[in-house]
Amino acid sequence: MAKANSKSPSRRKRPAAAPDANLLADLMKWARAAGADAADALYVNGESISVSQRLGKREKLESSEGRDLGLRVFVGRRQAFVSSTDFSPAALRTLAERAVDMARAVPEDPVCGIAPEELLARDWPDLDLDDKRKPPSAGSLLALSAEAEDAARAVKGVTNSEGAEASWGRTSIVLAASNGFLGGYRRSGYSLSCAVLAGEGTGMERDYEWSSAVHFDDLMAPARVGRNAGKFAVQRLNPKKAPNARLPVVYDRRISGGLIGHLAGAINGRSVARGTSFLKDRMGREVFAKGVRILDDPHRKRGLGSRPFDAEGLPTKRYAVVDDGVLTTWLLDLAAARQLNLAPTGHAARGTSGPPSPTTSNFYLAKGKLSVDELIADIKSGLYITDLIGFGVNGVTGDYSRGASGFWIENGKRAWPVSGITVAGNLKDMFLNMTPASDLQFKGAINAPTVRIEGMTIAGS
């Protein structure tokens, strides 16, 4: 059913047990002693720091450290979840007993349960998810914010600022289960953003730029973040109204990932099993134009959505979710796979206070062959969207309607800014009439190049 790519980074054996892993192993024993048939536990330990400045003055300085533990227990076909920040042995014994008591009191769930041993990940790739630097100081982060905002305010036409923010975080994750699984990894993360305004009075326009990365060296230079934010804001000045028409619409790569995000929701196994997805009957059929590929790659080095194993201890791998336009797989955790009578795909994610659910990792639309200029060169009249407003997507029917702003396309060129527009269509038709450009950039966990969609309805206000 699913197409997987066997190419993956070098793999390593599971690490030796750490103190946190020993704690989880003890918790498994206490849960079994309390009457659980099976159990799993997730430990998360994180630290972060965030600063911001506006108009040259520091506005925010936040720092946090914390750890949390979530326990899931099974009594027959019943399950319960509890979490705690108290890690003393006495507290955890009580936690396990309370969880078992809760499980005995809830209704049966025929699809719950941990993974059988034969499905567990035995080793996993080193994905370089921690840059191992010392935590940055508040001063160094503030310097990044200052450089970004200063660069934005230096752009001619910028008149005010919403500020710039820089942050850092590092999270350690350990998962243990009574089926014998034990694994953990650490992830670091940096982010930098800036938002400014251009123009005066009622003619002011706002725009932004941002960058996120696992490693500091992969973060966009602060001056570039600021210059982009300023340039984008100034370009939006003096917008015009757009006519009501049915024309080609182009989504800039800064916002095109949202379209791929709608696909991710539609192929989530839970939605498919409930019959609430507009693609529920499209498996193995063409849902995009020929040549289009959409991939989910949990093994991307330094990827913002990368993970060596999933939240149920299953191995992860690269999938061509859409291959040559054809939908090849659902995103399945164990419960969704059991509901659909299919094999799980290793897409489970979870927090410490609830059950796993399917989700993507590094989800992206593969780049096309045309540059952006070539993509729009034959459009006599059309819309180039750089910003979307509101949320008007029906996941059951695929109906799509969003507020938008951007630029009018005239004779193959971006001609003038436009705002106060609504674009509408149906995602099934939009996907089939989508053409990707060649400017794919990995900025988040869901990414797409600039895309062109034929025949959307444009309504000016």
Number of strands: 22
Total of domains: 2
Average residue-wise pLDDT: 94
Main sheet specs: 6 strands, mixed
Which stretches are low in confidence, meaning pLDDT under 50 for 5 or more residues running? 1-10, 12-18
CATH superfamily of the largest domain: PmbA/TldD superfamily
Q: What distance separates the N and C termini?
A: 46 Å
Given helix and strand content, the structural type is: alpha+beta
Radius of gyration: 24 Å
Helix content: 10-25%
Strand content: 35-45%
Shape by Cα distribution = globular
Could you tell me the CATH topology label of the largest domain. PmbA/TldD fold
CATH-scheme architecture of the largest domain:
2-Layer Sandwich
CATH C-level class of the largest domain is Alpha Beta
What is the count of helical runs? Answer: 9
